Amino acid sequence: MASSSSNNPYIALKIPEFRLFIAGRFCFTLAMQIQAVIVGWQVYDLTKDPFSLGLIGLAEAIPSIVVALYAGHLADIKSRKKIIIFGNLVLIFCLITLFAYSLNLKNLIGRFGVLPIYSVIFLTGIARGFISPVVFSFMSQILPSKSLYPNAVSWNITVWQAASVGGPAVGGLIYGFFGLSVAYAAGLCLIFSAFILFSQIVAKPLPETPQEFQKRESLLTGIRFVFNNRLILNAMSLDLFAVLFGGAIALLPIFASDILQAGPQGLGFLRSPPAIGSILIGLYLTHHPIGKNAGKKMLMAVTGFGICMILFGISTNYYLSLILLLLSGVFDSISVIVRHTLMQTLIPEHLKGRVSSVNSIFVGSSNEIGAFESGLTASMMGAATSVIFGGAMTLLVVIFTAFKAKKLRELNL
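^ thats the sequence. predicted structure below, dont judge the formating
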């Protein structure tokens, strides 16, 4: 079965409902990225307070993490399509509110300040907390065969990364040339397009739940499954600690300003290479899916990521730093694709929502806590030393995992 996927890199795209799914995912991600970059600029422009930018991430991350377990539980007992549709409707309402707020900005800002913007972002966090585990579990329902999972995961992650790269650029250009209201209107059009595309997918029946699971149905089922499945737990943990210790994104403003002497424009270029590297390797893996020795390749990829971070911390050359960030995106994406393919393959259909919600908490919390860890260590030992330390810790995690996680080391997809 794996050979059919490797011989035809477009095999998943031949399924009409999968094409609708990734088109909807692209529009959804692009809209959210546009909203994020515009809200950040708008809030900072109004407050001139860097701490206000941190509050934006907090206002969205906290509700998303809080509702994640219940969202995963709901994804396994209710129509997944209906949850996605309802979540998109909530996000449409959020963007309509932001658009309306931008039309009468001076009067409303004078009366309420930026509190309404934070309120909308809080609601956005709730909606995205419900959508995330449902999207993961819904994708497998529209694929007729598990042999398509590696190809579909590669396309899904590649499309997501493309939207993640394009969103900030598109949002910034629209905002710069046409203003705040037009930028929010563009985001609104995109999220409405996602709503239409997801609506065209035929609703799928809920997966059958074995009798033993019906008797102990709870919000903690996904957590129990993850901790009882050492292979998935080790894969999640490896990614968790790599992001927790190895990420340098939160410190890029310091590198652009003080170390690489690149200025604000250079900062914009520094943020793009990780996602570009991820897109390139994602397209490659749609043609050459990872099959044999997937576990060893995942460990090697996280090792490569850690080495890139160490060298990035040492580098004082702007162009070398760009190349290292590009390679870090390549290695990181290999790890993500292996983990997602493993999860799609091993998690029973009736548990995918709940287990995906646990993964969302792992990934979401590691990104936020990783940014905090980077800032804390940078304040104590300097930005460059902090990144080198994080890369070294990533390598130690890989060594520990390679010795302790035999099943992951010997994994074949």
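The first helix runs from residue 2 to 7.
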